[in-house]
Write a structure and sequence with these properties.
The chain has 104 residues and is of the alpha+beta class. 26% of the residues lie in helices and 26% in strands. The strands form two sheets. It has a three-stranded antiparallel β-sheet with strand order 1-2-3, covered by helices on one side. The protein has a two-stranded antiparallel ribbon with strand order 4-5.
């Protein structure tokens, strides 16, 4: 997974970008029903389960969690900046909200 991140989820996919940003130190994969699990080579792990079964919020939750915990090195969080927040649009392309993660 670390050596060929594009084989995990194809070029441009957020999983691939996460593996590339951490230079293979973190690998993870999404599964059915909104589940994502990932780990660093040193054993630190994260798991996210989106209750609605969708993966729409998963990249934002994972990047926010890794940033909040201080587990991303300098430059890695910046490389994943596109996953800090994203406009949520309806079928007409109108913005109706924003996907973002906040910690108390």
């Amino acid at each position: 997974m670390a050596a060929y991140p594009e084989m995990v989820a194809n070029r441009g996919h957020w999983n691939t970008k996460l593996i590339e940003a951490t230079k293979g130190q973190f690998v993870g994969k999404g599964g059915a029903e909104g589940l994502f699990a990932g780990a660093f080579r040193d054993g630190r792990t994260v798991v996210v389960k989106c209750q609605d079964g969708s993966h729409r919020a998963t990249p934002f939750a994972i990047v926010a969690m890794l940033t909040h915990l201080g587990w991303l090195k300098e430059g890695e969080a910046e490389a994943l900046a596109e996953f800090r927040e994203s406009p949520l649009k309806n079928l007409h392309g109108e913005q109706v909200g924003t996907i973002r993660v906040r910690f108390p």
